[in-house]
Amino acid sequence: MAAMAAMAAxxxxxxxxxxxxxxxxxxxxxxxxEGRAEGAEVRECQNGGQNVMVKEKPNSTRIYDKDGFxxxxxxxxxxxxxxxxxxxxxxxxxPELWIVPGGGVEPEEEPSxxxxxxxxxxxxxxxxxxxxxxxxxxxxxxxxxxxxxxxxTKELExxxxxxxxxxxxxxxxxxxxxxxxxHKPTQQxxxxxxxxxxxxxxxxxxxxxxHPPKLTNVATSPAASPTTA
Length: 229
What we know:
The protein is of the alpha+beta class.
């Protein structure tokens, strides 16, 4: 009878064990593939309802919000008041392609600080941080990116990624949209929001950036406006 009771207790407990075991392994080792690591951490976030951390690479830790989304920040860098040009950097994984500089929020770090840090690290520029364009939510990759505008005041001649061939370049808005379409089409939402945001308060704005926007005439078409979630 005692053995049967023990077996019944084990069967009743196993579904709970199966649910948490992958999360515990990833959090402890931090060596699983990106997809598995994110999936495991999302389950833990939803179960515990708190921010969760897991190591991503040396000196970097992923932070997840209470909904299981990875927290990120990025900067749209401009150099003139009319914001006609933006700065893009080449991808570290695919150097022939261009992206908006940004990255994960570190522990105890505000997104605005993350944005400034990432721009300095990836693009080698400094400047004054301006308005927030909102939080861009990507449901496919489970991350939320808070995007800011930076007015660049100085471009460093040398910065760490430049030593391994990473480049930066100024593009017109239309050219930048075309470049992003090749590798990071969802980041086109950032630039479209830049164009529509000069007279709007975006502090608490959440933009669904899961899918690439439908572009026609990006400079004037109402269809270029991103959808708010």
